[in-house]
Sequence to fold (175 residues):
Amino acid sequence: MSATADAERVPLAIRLFHWALAAAFIGAWALEADWRAAHEWLGYAAAALVVWRLAYAWRAPADWRWRALPHSPRKVLRHAAQLARGRAELAAGYNPIAAWNVLAMFAMLLAIAASGWALTTDRYWGDQTLQALHAALVNLMGWLVGFHLLGVTVGSLRARGFLPRSMLDGRRLPH
Fold:
């Protein structure tokens, strides 16, 4: 495969990461009440996946490195304004809003995992305040996931294609 063709594909490592992370989060959320051990291990798996993704970003193909993600608040606001007017350019990778959402989801997942782990320690076992914080972080993550899904839907409509396909077969939509 040529370098150009490679650049037009989502790496398998990213696709596997994406679906494993989604499964770990959904599984931990769904099993919270009845399967405490599975809930904890899925939380640890989600945290490990995020740490792996942070490390992968240093050696990943160009579109998947960290320098492709951070955008200034000014760029994010400009993109949002252009999007509202129907003039935002389609991005092959992360647009400025999506980039910040990805970073927020990673930070939130790490905070959820850290608070969940703390709840297993002698010091914080049964601590109502930390339990409430953990639950609030999970709820905030739900909002971030919803925002992510909204962005995927809007992006799919704007690109006149099904963006999630790229997380299945690796082929990006033309932009």
